[in-house]
Amino acid sequence: MQTITSERIPIKIWAADIDAAALQQARNLANLPFAFRWIAVMPDAHTGYGMPIGGVLATEDMVIPNAVGVDIGCGMAAVRTNLRNVHTEELQDILAIIRAEVPVGFKHHHDPQTWGGFDRAPDISIIQDELNSARHQLGTLGGGNHFIEIQRGDDGFVWLMIHSGSRNFGLKVASEYHRLAKASCARGKINLSDPDLSYLTADSPQGREYLTAMNYCLDFARANRALMVERGMQAITAVTGGVGTFEVNIHHNYAAVESHFGREVLVHRKGATSARKGQAGIIPGSMGAHSYITEGLGNDESFQSSSHGAGRRMGRNEATRRLDLRQEQQKMKGIIHGLRTKRELNEAPGAYKDIDDVMAQQQDLVKIITQLSPLAVIKG
Predict the structure, then answer these.
(1) How many Cβ atoms are within 10 Å of 8's Cβ, its own excluded?
(2) Which residue range forms the structural domain that includes residue 245?
(3) CB 321: neighbour CB atoms within 10 A?
(4) For residue 230, what pLDDT is reported?
(5) Tally of domains within the chain
(6) Which residues in the chain show pLDDT less than 50?
(7) CATH number of the domain that 114 lies in?
(8) How does strand 305-307 pair with strand 62-63?
């Protein structure tokens, strides 16, 4: 970990390699008058909107919608099964069932899905306007870097892992409250180094409304992953008879009131995972690399956080332009995958940092419990 001390508050960086734009974004955060103690930058950090993905920011009394991001509640779920092995033919059958039960990309369920949380939706227009659509989005994967994987652990068991978030709920909430935050800062004639860091006072009507909507998105995202886990395990059970024995379901895009250094602060984790002492975590690699089940070490210097994955080393357009399809397919030899065309290279292994390097850079943040190797992948 290196520390930069040239700004209003320090920047603590666990990344051995960080692009200049992401570093500048961290400097912008460090100069916010309400930023608390220091900025923590995880080893998977790369450029985002306003705040780097892989960044952790604690604030006093303020909330920044873009410091949570547009996929509120995006996160991971993983289930260890009781299976010791699964054959290629079984994997193909499992994937076929999952594809039939879990819509991907822009596809939704034809019929509305059931979740008790729909009856508890807050009376906030942006939430209420999306409720009907959300009933059809629950239990859907989405696109981009979202995925479903079946993996083999070094613990000897087969695992199911899912990466997804709050679907259109998160995007709509993030966009609306960033717009309101920009308008609020403009009215107050607040001079920001980057308008993408526009903020709301946490206890203002709009700030409270954003936090309420954000927390509802978190609940929906968790339920979304849980339903896909249920459908995925049903497929595994139908084909192999295997059942789940352990499950983790966590967020990596959210803000939460926490106690750090004797103060109640609002910790924004954007592409970062909570890593309290003893807390179970999930840090995925690219679709051709290892993923990890971890245990948090409760390091106060990172606000008890860790990376959320490997982190991109090139943008999606750059990856499509620069990567060689055949070479990327070779990296996934032995894995059932859907990387077939050049346009799909934006999520290829070469677009991401080396997950093992990332894990080596955060040995003081998490302890590795299980290393997982991909057997089969469904990409969003």
Answers:
(1) 11
(2) 2-313+352-379
(3) 12
(4) 98
(5) 1
(6) none
(7) 3.90.1860.10
(8) unpaired
